[in-house]
Amino acid sequence: MTMRAEDFERHRPLLFSIAYRMLSSAAEAEDIVQETYLRWREVPEEEVRSPRSYLSAVVTRLSINRLRSARARREQYVGPWLPEPLLSEWSEDAGGSTEPDESLSIAFLVLLESLNPVERAVFILREVFDYDYAEISRIVGKSEDNCRQIAHRARSAVAARRPRFESSPEHEQRLTERFVEASTSGDMEGLLELLSEDVTLWSDGGGKVAAPPYPIHGPERVARFLVGIPRTLPGFSARAVQVNGGPGAIGYANGDPRGVVALDVAEGRIRGVHIVVNPDKLRAIRPSSPDE
């Protein structure tokens, strides 16, 4: 591997992290990272003072351009739009888990949809990755003072509806396992014990598969919808996983992934249920194995 390729690989996790938070799509983020690499290979070395700064600028600008076209598509989207989920397994030792990164959560990424592409870039670079305003200014092509104003507006827009993360990973894992058990067994009372009074459920089918076209509010309506899912899918099963660093689950029909659930937990109960069933957003999920 050449020195230039090594420089790029060293920064690849950062580049993907920026692109995913900008686009809320792992597939599109990977495309942007690959396009960044192609540009990296062609740029003369004397034009690069800092690989990190150069690559961050390219991936951010490409993400801004991609997001502008994506926003137009999302305006025509059928039903609620949710990000493409990122999955990971629960740690065997939950006590060793770190606190969840709210900037990765499904709820937080949905909230960022209220910002325009440049606001989103400035907010993410400043609030998530702690870039200074001088570097942000060079990346987005605006003055430092303007970037400060943009960041302030973005923080104000986000603050009022910012998700709350108050549970420990251990509690979230136990809550998720109880949620999966109650949902798959049709235990209405068990589900109602887990849901908050102001719980809301969103389901993203994208017009590709059946899904509620509007959010579902209230514990009884949400619980009734959840216990009905296994009845509509042959060979239904589910297992708890971490979705975007927080509590969640995968649902299967005869071993094939059919949906991903991300849970928002506040004050010990489930306040938000985000269900992604659009098959385009489930392509990276492998089928279940017999021992899962």
Textual characterization of the structure:
- The protein has helices at 3-23, 26-42, 51-75, 106-112, 117-128, 133-140, 144-159, 169-185, 188-194, 219-232, and strands at 87-88, 195-204, 216-217, 236-243, 246-253, 256-266, 269-276.
- By secondary structure, the protein is an alpha+beta fold.
- The protein has 2 domains: 3-76 and 106-159, Butyryl-CoA Dehydrogenase, subunit A, domain 3, CATH 1.20.140.160; 169-281, Roll (Nuclear Transport Factor 2, Chain: A), CATH 3.10.450.
- It has a 7-stranded mixed β-sheet.
- Strand 5 and strand 6 form a beta hairpin.
- The longest helix is centred in the N-terminal third of the chain and has 25 residues, at 51-75.
- It is globular, with a radius of gyration of 20 Å.
- Mean pLDDT is 91; it is low at 92-99.
Q: Could you say which structural class the secondary elements and strand pairing correspond to? A: alpha+beta
Taken from the alpha-carbon principal axes, the silhouette is: globular
CATH topology of the largest domain: Butyryl-CoA Dehydrogenase, subunit A, domain 3
Proper CATH architecture of the largest domain: Up-down Bundle
Number of helices: 10
The biggest sheet, with number of strands, parallel, antiparallel or mixed sense and barrel status, is: 7 strands, mixed
Assigned CATH class of the largest domain:
Mainly Alpha
Task: Tell me the domain tally.
Answer: 2
What integer value in Å does the Rg equal?
A: 20 Å
Beta-strand percent range: 15-25%
Number of strands: 7
